[in-house]
Amino acid sequence: MNALDVHRQIAALEIEARGDKHARLVLSDLYEDLGKPSVAESWRKVVDETQPIRAIDSFGVRDDVARLMLDELPEKSFRTRKRVDKMTDAEAAQMASWAKKWIEIGLCTKPADRPLFEAAVRACYRHSGLLEPKVVVWAPCPLVVAYAGPIAAWWCDRIVDASVLASVRASVDASVRASVDASVRASVDASVRASVDASVGDSVDASVRASVRASVLASVDASVLASVDASVDASVHASVDASVDASVRASVDASVDDVGSRREIAVALKQQINDRWFHRFGGQFWSGYGYYWRWGGPPSVTFALDVLRLDIGREQELKARAYAATHASACWWWPGKTFVIVSERPSLIEKHKNGKLKVARWEWIDARGNAQHWEVRP
Fold it and tell me: Most buried in the list 60, 210, 263, 367, measured by CB within 10 Å?
């Protein structure tokens, strides 16, 4: 049983345990098995059945992370509506602050929120009809993601059906981002979309794109084109090694002779990087970036959900909030069938007075204990 199944079982038992002594005993035994004797004893002593202990508190899991793990939506203190044909003055007045919030997310230089991202990306896979990734590998910068994702996928292609791997990004994209985009656009009047798009979506997109996104993309593109013939550096190899488990690496090692020379392998890897490095999601740098009127972008979608009180249905909202959380928690990420490789946020972003990027910099300590960095200057 995986961690998600355990959380779901606990959540179901706690609901039942409010009025069922037997369920409380089963729950206590489960906590004992999980190495939580004090929690188990607390449940055995519960007398007031209206005040149960929450599993997410017992495990020390944050509410936002737990909701993603358990496919739960946040509680709402307002009535929702199925369609938005007009904004009130109070709703329109919140657009500027909403845009500011998402611009700050797009330009954030704090350490990545790893628990939130990992819960969110696993939710994105589930909502796309895919098995959750077996491992989420943290890379120090987008350049490592651009190399390590395609390389790890190439090794996996030798073990599983390559067509399945190729469809992972498309599945997440179509099932989550495009699906939410279509639902929201169908439920919001064109004039409202245009207003929110101009004040929120365009504002966020322009700020993040001008400052970072386009420059990082161009830098990675240039680096791939210029250095794909060179060896991948130690940090990239470390990410790949962490992404592909021992059994996969063993199978690859055993099959090298079948492929031929190391030169042939190198040529294949170079082609793989060229063809697939850009099959990534932008994380924080895609804030404000979506389909058509940018309604696939989290700033506009979350504005519709939380400010315009739009009801797009439980399944669509779960998708929307999971995808938004990947933006709010980390930088670039590359989806594989059994793994996800994700970049830390930048350590530094400096802008000129006109808002254009001066420098974006990622800093980290490599496996040998040496300080490393990667930076982008337009």
Answer: 210
